[in-house]
Structure formats: C-alpha cells, structure tokens
Amino acid sequence: MARIVMKFGGTSVGDLDRIRNVAARVKREVEAGNQVAVVVSAMAGTTNQLVKWCQDLSPLHDAREYDVVVATGEQVTIGLVAIALQAIGVEARSWQGWQVPIVTDNAHGKARVESIEGAELIRRMEEGQVPVVAGFQGIETARNRVTTLGRGGSDLSAVALAAALKADRCDIYTDVDGVYTTDPRIVPRAKKLERISYEEMLELASVGAKVLQTRSVELAMKEGVRVQVLSSFEDKPGSLVVDEDEIMEKPIVSGIAYSRDEAKVTLRRLPDRPGVAARVFGPLSASNVNVDMIVQNIGADGSTDMTFTVGRADLPRAQDILNKAKEELGFEAMVADPEVAKISVVGIGMRTHAGVASTMFKALAEKGINIQVISTSEIKVSVLVASEYTELAVRALHTAYGLDA
Amino acid sequence: MARIVMKFGGTSVGDLDRIRNVAARVKREVEAGNQVAVVVSAMAGTTNQLVKWCQDLSPLHDAREYDVVVATGEQVTIGLVAIALQAIGVEARSWQGWQVPIVTDNAHGKARVESIEGAELIRRMEEGQVPVVAGFQGIETARNRVTTLGRGGSDLSAVALAAALKADRCDIYTDVDGVYTTDPRIVPRAKKLERISYEEMLELASVGAKVLQTRSVELAMKEGVRVQVLSSFEDKPGSLVVDEDEIMEKPIVSGIAYSRDEAKVTLRRLPDRPGVAARVFGPLSASNVNVDMIVQNIGADGSTDMTFTVGRADLPRAQDILNKAKEELGFEAMVADPEVAKISVVGIGMRTHAGVASTMFKALAEKGINIQVISTSEIKVSVLVASEYTELAVRALHTAYGLDA
Questions:
Q1: What is this structure's pTM?
Q2: What domains lie within chain A, and their CATH numbers?
Q3: I want to staple A83 with a disulfide (CB 3.0 to 4.6 A). Which of A111, B61, B240, B290 is the partner?
C-alpha cells in the first residue's frame, strides 16, 4: 500500500469523457489498495478565457479580483471529478483551497504556499475517501481571500500537497508520457528517462523542456517528494524525478534542452571601469528584467564589449532602459538579436567527469555552428547559437553524447 | 442618502459590455450619495452549462458537489463586476457566500438562508466601498461547504442581504421594466404598476408572472424589505413592491395572471367515504407532488367525482401513484388533461369589495369560455380553462376590470 497524490492537468480534464477517464485511473489506484488524493487543473481553455475577461475589462485589474475569477476554473473541475468518481463507486469529496486550507502569502496572482493542513485529508484517506483538491489556488488567511499560484501552479499544488500528506509519490499526469533525453519532435530517437535527479530536472525545466513547472521541481527537491511524470492517455510507467541517491548509475549527460525564449544584447565599446557591470545590470534588475548568460571581452584600449541574454519578451524594455542610460554608461552602440537559441547539455555525472564541454564544442564545430556565448554550471553547459541551427545542434549533441536509442 | 442593494440577473451581466453597463449604473447611485451593495447572478447561460455537466456525469449526482460546480458562475461575475467598478473609479470588493458569510442550512441545491453577517459590509459601505456579493450561494457552517439556494436564488440573496444590511430598498434589475397588469405580450395595452403589495406580488409570482422568484417575495414581506423591479437596459423607474400600507388607493384588481404549467386530473365515481381526500392526496404529497386547485362534486349514489390540478411536469408521476392505489381508493376511472390554463385575477381591494368573481364569470361567459375549476383566496380568484382560451381569457378580463390603459 502506498499513499499517492495524482495530479491531472487541463488537457487531461478537458471534457467529460476525459474526466471519466481520470476517474477510472483513480479507481484503479484505489483498487490496488493505495490511499489516493487527486489534484486537478481547470478544464483546458477555461483559464485563458477567464484571464482574457479580466484583462479586457481592465489591463491593470486588481489581482485580488483576478484571483476570485480565475480560481473558479479549478473549482468546476473538482466538483465534476468528485461526481465522476462517485458515479463509479469511489468515495470522493472536493476541496477548495480555502477548505483544506492551503495557506499562501498575499502575493495575489503568484502566491507562495506557506502551509497545508493535511491532518483531516489524511484521516479521510485512511477511511477510504479520495480528496479531490483544487490545484493552483489557496487562501491568504489575514484577509480570508482566495489566491492563485501563477500559471502552471497546479504542479506546485500537487507537490506541496504530497509533502503535507507525506505521500510516497506525486504522479503528474500530462500529455507527454515522461521526460526525454531531448524533444522527441526534433530527435525521434530520443529516449524516455526512467529516472532523473531533481537537479537535472530543474536545469531541463528552466531551459525549455516544458514538462514540469520549475517551482514545483524546486519544492519537490526541498521536501524530498518523489515525482513521477506520466501520460494520462496511455497506460505505462513514466519518468521518476528523485534524489540522485536513488539513481544508481549517474549518466554524464542525461539530456539536451533548448530554448528560443531569449534574446542577445551586445553593448559595444563600453568603458572598462570598475563597477561597470553593476551600472549595466542594476537598472535591468530593478525593472524585473532577468539577465541570463553574460560574457565580457576586454579590449586593449580601455573599452570592452559586453554581451548578455534577456527573456525575448523583455527585450524592448531592456533596450529602452539601456538607451536611456547610454550617456551615463558611455557605450558606443547597442546591438540586439532576438534570433538566438540556447542549447544546454545537462547531467549530474558531469561533476565527476571532465571533457563534457569540449565534446560539445567539437560536435557543434563539426556541423559548422558558431558559438556566440557560453555559460556553465556544475551540471550544465549552455551555449548560445543562431536560432536557425537549433534542431541541427540538438541532433548533433544527442548523437555526440551517445543518447540515440 | 439611502442604502440600496442592487441586484443584476444573468442577462444583465451576460457579457463584458453589459457588465460595464452594470458598473456605470452602480456608479450613478454611488455618485448620488447612496450606500450601495451589489448582488449578481451568473452570466446568462453559464449555470445551465454547469448543471448539464453534472447531470451528464451522473443523473443522481451528489448535491454537495453540484453546489461546488454551479456556485462558480456567480464567483466569476463578482470578480468581473468588481474589476469593472474599479476601472471607472468606484471602490469595490467581491464577496463569496462563505466570505460574508451567508449562512444556510445544509439542504444542498435548494438551501434556505439562516443568517447573514452584515456588520463588516455595512462598515465598508459607510467608508464608501461597494461590496459585490455573489447571489445564489451560501455556506453551511457545520461542514464548511458551499451551498446554493435553487434556481432564481439570486433574487432571494438580494432580499436577504437587503434585510441584513437594513437597506432602504432592494432594486432588482432584470430584462423587464416592472410589474404589469398582465403579460404585455398578450395585452399590449397592459399598464406598468407603480406600486404593488407583497400579497399581490406573491399571487402574481406564484401564478405565472415570472418577474420575481416567489420565495424572495415571501422573504421581502416577512422582513419588510421594499423591492423595486426595474430594467437594466432602460433608465426609468420600475415597480415598487411594498407593504399595502404604502399603497394609498387600493385597486380592486391589480393584475391578471396566467399559468400553463398545470394539468388537470379527474377521478370518476370515487366512493364518497369519510377520509377519501386524505387517501387520495396523502400519497401524492408523500411523493412531493403539489396539488393546487381541488373540486369535488357529490353525487346521489354515494360516489363522487374529484378534480384537481398538479404541476404539469408531475403529471406522469401523479398518474402512476394513483393507478397503483386504484383498488384501494375504489374509483372507476382516471382522466388526465394537460391542456389547461389557470387564469387568476389578483387585487388587495377584493377584501372589501364584492362582485369581483361574478364580473370574472360574466366576462368569460360572454366569450364562450367554459370554466372547469374555480378556486379563491382572500385577494385572488382563479379559474381553470382549456389552454387554447388563455389569451382570449386574459384579454377579456383585462378589459372587464378596467385595466386597459
């Protein structure tokens, strides 16, 4: 017997037939003798419609009222899933965020979970009832108002609930059947990973493998929640995201990720004075523009070229901020290029193996792909290339690291 | 300065433009120096969709889960209306049933309001904030679960809230601009009533003038809430539903109502024994079949013909119940006729005036309309006629009582 949190995303509960399918899956786990709690998202498309209404009424709407509106999506689903479960003989009851309660801070629209009261749910699970909990939503108890956790927040709800319920596993049902060595649409021979460490998953999630929301992986790592990613439409095991101690043979490279969501900015002939980086990045950070990769070439004449990447959506804002500071910063020209892609090689085995980066550079050079920027972390090497080379680069690296099945 | 509850139904908040229109109306009342609370229904069509999902998943669904699902309709509207108000500079905040709280019993799907905590809302109204309260929903506090008040329950929410807030008036905005002497679609010369008593409104509401939900009129009468019915699309005063003491000149007949929602049942040659009525109507009542008009003709041979009406939707159930009890009851035959209409003449002045019924019978006789059943109350005379005569009867009576404008 195990205690399992099963989380179903928007496409998995997109219509009544899919909701019946969800109920049937839950029933199987219950009949296998497990204690089960369910977390669900809004039916696909619902949240977008609700968000659009708020924005159409007022682009600068009150985030507290936005939360009241968008939290209804999950409320509909918990009721329907509970009814579908009861209809096939599974005892079930719906729980809204404020009923559990799932207590958050008061950052409406992107609240953080502070605590979840799990005792009553555990008691009911032990008696055989399935709690069906609304994902994405909580309550800030100072003012008793509904909060939401931000887009993709249902993954976070599921992981946080699994921690509160001391669950053996948190199963995230989605429209892909696991975590792959890379995007199977680019490399058809990409392999599904049986197990992957939190750290690797975090790097893969943040660089563009849109399987699990980044914050939910961070929370799973912090709380030691074992997460399984699997398909709600097929009946086979998925990928398990666990502590690296649970992974016997640590691969040097687990996966190749890519992201086209960044843009490159270069400041030419920036005076090379102490504190110049702070003066460039301070105003960007103050305006919530995240800077990712940074390189700086020191010139001979006391000036330098500085190149960095920002989120592509933030590029106009970043350009505006830097243009306004041009005189103060003293650079000669700013060149922006949104047509870039970040390609990353991720693996916990890198820590103990040399030569990972050079394999990467060699493989890309052989295909004639120019590397614009490089950045590395303990378990990741990322390069920036022209975005037209994305697929070619991913395929070359997948082969170079022996990941082709 | 007055304290006003403004209630807007589903068609009045049916899309974003209509929600903006609602906000503009509320703003006008606020700018006139009034304290305003708003009650809203779900956007038109929403509740039907939610109900259908529940029924499709399971015709015998858990009413507690049904309430979780359908209560979302009003939750969406309160958030959107609050945003629309804020967008035009009106301070506003949404309130769900559990937040107020609007405490109900635990009769899920048709709960009764037990109490409303009004102090916090009054405090905020006095500070200039407009509470936007979800109609139709409440909370049963023993289990902390969401309840709904049954279809049309938003009128009831508005009246109950007006009582709790000690409001001077409860304005019900709808798609008609007031209460008429009869249905203007049948009698184009029908007049809008400036004032009508609770008792008359109750008779009109329950016999088919679908302007205000019956329970909300009962509650308004009990709590002495002055209710105004008016159009959300036009800018003119509506009809005021008040205590009869507020009505100076009491009309003998205020209005003519009709209902096609009934069916007639006749039991032929029923043995005329003491207690026979109890044996006929006991089982019907036990199965929640409401019986309305009843007549009994006593025959010479110790048998009787008994005729009564039931809701048309209940007819098959009533026939089934009576057929099963045929032997015990001892009647010879049952004849059912769904093609009937109930025409009612309503007016508080009737109490002190004779001849109202005979005017009715004469007017109908002149048009050759046969009266099948008659029933009277203190302020109402109702007759049952073949349904094909409905319009003819309503027009004849409207003229006979001098109501034509």
A1: 0.85
A2: 3-175 (3.40.1160.10), 245-405 (3.30.2130.10)
A3: B61
